[in-house]
Write a structure and sequence with these properties.
- This protein has 84 residues and is of the alpha+beta class.
- It has a domain of 37 residues.
- Helix content is 29%, strand content 18%.
- It has a 3-stranded antiparallel beta sheet, with no helix packed on it.
- The longest helix is centred in the last third of the chain and has 24 residues.
- The radius of gyration is 27 Å and the shape is elongated.
- The termini are far apart.
Length: 84
């Protein structure tokens, strides 16, 4: 469920509320009873892992093409070694 940030227009009290998409927006400040407004900030997206690469957004056909190129070069390298 998403977390929404609210701030009171009267007293300035700021807090976060975890609400479902179907829940109505909060309208009353829990501190003073004043009117609330939603605060909009940066997008809550986090990228976890070792990094983001240019090839991560490509389709499976592009990945298969990229994977076959190094395999072909390794076969070329091993061919002269076995012939010698």
């Amino acid at each position: 469920m998403p977390t929404y940030a609210y701030a009171c227009k009267s007293c300035g009290h700021a807090f976060d509320a975890v609400q479902s998409f179907a829940d109505p927006a909060l309208t009353e400040c829990p501190e003073c009873g004043g009117a609330l407004r939603k605060q909009y900030g940066s997008v809550g997206v986090t990228f976890n892992g070792s990094g983001f690469y240019r090839t991560d957004s490509r389709g499976s056909s592009a990945t298969a093409g990229g994977a076959s190129a190094p395999a072909a070069s390794s076969k070329t390298e091993s061919a002269p070694a076995s012939g010698a």
